[in-house]
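Lecture notes, part 5. Sequence design as translation. It can be helpful to think of inverse folding as translation between two languages: the language of shapes and the language of residues. The source text, in C-alpha cells, appears below.
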C-alpha cells in the first residue's frame, strides 16, 4: 500500500496548515480596513452584520473550499475535474490571486521603505523643515497656524507672508508619504517615471517570496511559525503603548459606541459581506491550494471554525490598537476622532505615522509598527503566490517535476513576472493604479466566483454526493453529522441568496472611483471594469471552449479520475476497478452495482475516448 503523502507533499504538521491559513487570512486589511469600516458603519453596531456574514457566508465557503482541496488533493484548477465544464472557475481564481499578489507586494514595499526610514534619531515625517515640505505643512507639534513665526520655515521664501487656517494645512506625515515616498503625480494619466527606491523595495519583496517558496510548502510551513504569530506580539506591544497615551479612551469609545440606525442601511451589510470575503481570502483559490497538501483525513471541520474565528477576533483586536492611537492624536489636535480617522493606505502611511511621530522614542514605535505590517503582508503574500504556483504546477506537472530545476526556475519566473507587472505601481502615478486594482479586484470577481462555486457544489455536483465525500474523509462522527444541519441550508440556500443580494446591492451602489479629491477619468473606470472581467471571462469562456472543441459528453459530470488521489483512500464508489484476466473484459465498480444518487450503472463504455487529464491514463476499452 502506498504510504500517505507519497503522491503529493503534505504539511509537516496540522499546526503548519492552521498557521498558514491564519497567515493567509490575517493580513493588512485586518489592520487598516476593518477598523475604518467599524468607524464608517456604526461603530460597535457593525459587528452584528460582520459576524452574521461570517457565520452564514464566510464559514460555509471556507469549509467548502477546504473540503474540495483536501478530498481531491488538487489545486484550484485541477480540482474542477469535479465538473470539467466549470474549469474556468479555477482559472478565474488564479487570475484574481495573481492580481492581488501584484498590488499587495507594492503595499509591502511601502512598509519596507518606512521601516528603514524609521531607523533614525527622529522619524523623517516629524517636522516640516525638509526639502519635500511645502508652506502648507503643519507638524503635530504646532498648535497654532504658522507663518513667519515658525523658525523651521523661515528659510523658505515661498512661505513668506502666508498664514494657513486649519482646513488648508497638510500634516508632515501626509507630505512625507505623497511628496517624498511617492512623489505622487497629478493622476493616473501622469505616471512620470519609476520611483527607483520603491522599485528596489518591491524587488526585495519578491526576492523574499521566492526564497520562502523555493521549496514549496516544505519551506513555507516553517516560515509561518514566525510570520503568523509574531504580529500578535507586536500588536499587543502597540496596544499596551496605546493604552498609556492621553485621550486613548475617546478613541476606544468612538470605536465601540454603536449607532444602531446604521443596521437599516444596505451598504453596511454589503460592506460586511465584502470584508468577510476579503479578510478570509475565500474564493481566490488559496484555501483549495493549501488544503490540497493536507492528509486525506485531516480535521478541516475544526479548522473551518477556528481560522475564521481567529481572523475576526484579530480584526476586532487590531481595532483597539488603531483607535487608541487615533484617540491620542485627536486629543493632541484638540479635535474629535472622526476628524482624524481614515482607512486603507491613508491610515497606515499617513494617520498612524503622524501619531507615532508625537510619541516619545518615536523611531522605536515606528519600527515596531511597520515591521508588524511587513510580517502581516508577507504571511498573506506567501500563500497568495503559492496559490498561483500550485494551480499552474498541477496543470503542467509532467513537464515541471522532472528535472527538479524546472520547478525552481518556474517559481523564480512567477516571482520575476509579478515584479515586472508591479512596476507601473511604483511609478509616480502608481498609487492611482494600486487603488484602482484594490477597488475592483476585491469585489465583484470574488462574489461571482463564490456564487458559481456554491451553485456547482450544491446543485450540479449535488449536496448529498458532496456530503458522502466529506464523510469518506472525516468519518461519520457526531460533530460531522450535526454540522450538516447547518451546512445544508447555508450551502444550498442562504449563502447563494446572500451573495446574489450583495452583488445586486454593489451594482446599485456603484460610484465612479475616486481617491481623495481626485476623480478617475472615464477610461480609468472602464479599465477597472476590464480588471473585473479579466478573471470572470474564463468562466463562460471555458464552458464554450469545452462545448465546441472537447468531447462534451458528460461535461457537467465528474471526470472518471475525480476522487481521492491515493488508492488507499478510494473506497465505495471510488474503489479501484476490478480488472479481469482478459484485457478486453468489462468490469463493474462495486459502488456502481448499487448506484448512489441515481448514477447509471456503467461498465466504462461511456468514457471511451474521453480525454483524461490524469498523469496516468484512465482505462479505455
Amino acid at each position: 500500500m502506498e504510504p500517505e503523502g507519497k503522491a503529493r507533499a503534505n504539511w509537516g504538521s496540522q499546526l503548519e496548515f492552521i498557521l498558514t491559513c491564519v497567515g493567509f487570512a490575517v493580513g493588512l486589511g485586518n489592520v487598516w480596513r476593518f477598523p475604518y469600516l467599524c468607524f464608517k458603519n456604526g461603530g460597535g453596531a457593525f459587528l452584528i452584520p460582520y459576524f452574521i456574514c461570517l457565520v452564514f457566508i464566510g464559514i460555509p465557503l471556507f469549509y467548502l473550499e477546504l473540503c474540495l482541496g483536501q478530498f481531491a488533493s488538487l489545486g484550484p484548477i485541477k480540482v474542477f475535474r469535479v465538473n470539467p465544464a466549470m474549469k474556468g472557475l479555477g482559472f478565474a481564481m488564479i487570475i484574481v490571486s495573481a492580481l492581488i499578489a501584484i498590488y499587495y507586494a507594492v503595499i509591502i514595499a511601502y512598509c519596507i521603505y518606512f521601516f528603514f526610514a524609521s531607523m533614525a534619531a527622529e522619524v523623517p515625517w516629524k517636522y516640516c523643515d525638509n526639502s519635500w515640505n511645502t508652506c502648507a505643512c503643519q507638524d503635530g507639534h504646532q498648535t497654532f497656524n504658522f507663518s513667519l513665526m515658525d523658525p523651521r520655515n523661515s528659510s523658505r521664501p515661498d512661505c513668506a507672508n502666508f498664514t494657513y487656517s486649519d482646513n488648508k494645512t497638510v500634516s508632515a506625515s501626509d507630505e512625507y508619504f505623497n511628496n517624498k515616498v511617492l512623489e505622487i503625480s497629478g493622476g493616473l494619466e501622469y505616471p512620470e517615471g519609476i520611483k527607483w527606491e520603491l522599485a528596489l523595495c518591491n524587488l526585495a519583496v519578491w526576492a523574499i517570496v521566492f526564497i520562502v517558496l523555493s521549496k514549496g510548502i516544505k519551506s513555507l510551513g516553517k516560515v509561518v511559525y514566525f510570520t503568523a504569530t509574531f504580529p500578535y506580539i507586536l500588536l499587543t506591544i502597540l496596544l499596551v503603548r496605546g493604552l498609556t497615551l492621553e485621550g486613548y479612551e475617546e478613541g476606544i469609545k468612538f470605536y465601540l459606541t454603536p449607532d444602531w440606525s446604521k443596521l437599516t442601511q444596505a451598504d453596511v451589510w454589503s460592506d460586511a459581506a465584502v470584508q468577510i470575503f476579503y479578510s478570509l481570502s475565500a474564493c481566490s483559490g488559496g484555501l483549495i491550494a493549501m488544503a490540497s497538501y493536507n492528509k486525506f483525513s485531516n480535521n478541516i471541520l475544526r479548522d473551518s471554525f477556528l481560522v475564521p474565528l481567529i481572523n475576526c477576533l484579530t480584526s476586532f483586536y487590531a481595532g483597539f490598537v488603531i483607535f487608541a492611537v487615533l484617540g491620542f492624536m485627536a486629543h493632541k489636535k484638540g479635535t474629535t476622532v472622526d476628524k482624524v480617522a481614515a482607512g486603507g493606505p491613508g491610515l497606515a502611511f499617513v494617520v498612524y505615522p503622524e501619531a507615532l511621530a508625537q510619541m516619545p522614542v518615536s523611531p522605536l514605535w515606528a519600527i515596531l509598527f511597520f515591521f508588524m505590517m511587513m510580517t502581516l503582508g508577507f504571511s498573506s503574500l506567501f500563500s497568495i503566490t503559492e496559490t498561483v504556483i500550485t494551480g499552474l504546477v498541477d496543470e503542467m506537472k509532467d513537464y515541471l517535476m522532472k528535472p527538479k530545476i524546472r520547478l525552481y526556475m518556474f517559481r523564480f519566473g512567477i516571482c520575476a513576472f509579478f515584479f515586472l507587472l508591479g512596476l507601473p505601481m511604483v511609478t509616480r502615478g502608481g498609487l492611482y493604479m494600486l487603488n484602482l486594482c484594490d477597488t475592483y479586484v476585491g469585489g465583484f470577481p470574488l462574489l461571482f466566483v463564490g456564487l458559481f462555486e456554491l451553485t456547482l457544489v450544491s446543485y450540479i455536483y449535488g449536496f448529498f454526493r458532496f456530503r458522502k465525500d466529506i464523510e469518506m474523509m472525516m468519518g461519520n462522527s457526531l460533530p460531522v453529522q450535526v454540522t450538516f444541519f447547518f451546512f445544508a441550508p447555508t450551502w444550498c440556500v442562504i449563502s447563494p441568496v446572500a451573495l446574489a443580494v450583495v452583488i445586486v446591492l454593489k451594482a446599485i451602489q456603484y460610484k465612479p472611483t475616486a481617491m481623495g479629491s481626485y476623480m478617475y477619468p472615464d477610461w480609468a473606470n472602464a479599465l477597472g471594469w476590464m480588471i473585473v472581467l479579466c478573471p470572470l471571462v474564463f468562466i463562460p469562456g471555458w464552458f464554450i471552449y469545452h462545448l465546441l472543441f472537447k468531447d462534451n459528453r458528460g461535461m457537467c459530470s465528474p471526470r472518471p479520475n475525480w476522487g481521492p488521489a491515493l488508492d488507499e483512500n478510494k473506497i465505495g464508489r471510488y474503489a479501484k476497478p476490478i480488472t479481469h484476466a482478459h484485457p478486453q473484459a468489462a468490469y463493474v465498480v462495486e459502488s456502481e452495482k448499487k448506484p448512489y444518487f441515481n448514477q447509471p450503472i456503467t461498465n466504462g463504455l461511456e468514457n471511451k475516448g474521453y480525454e483524461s487529464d490524469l498523469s496516468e491514463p484512465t482505462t479505455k476499452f
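The translated text above is only one of many valid answers, since several sequences can fold into similar shapes. The chain is about 60% helix and 0% strand.
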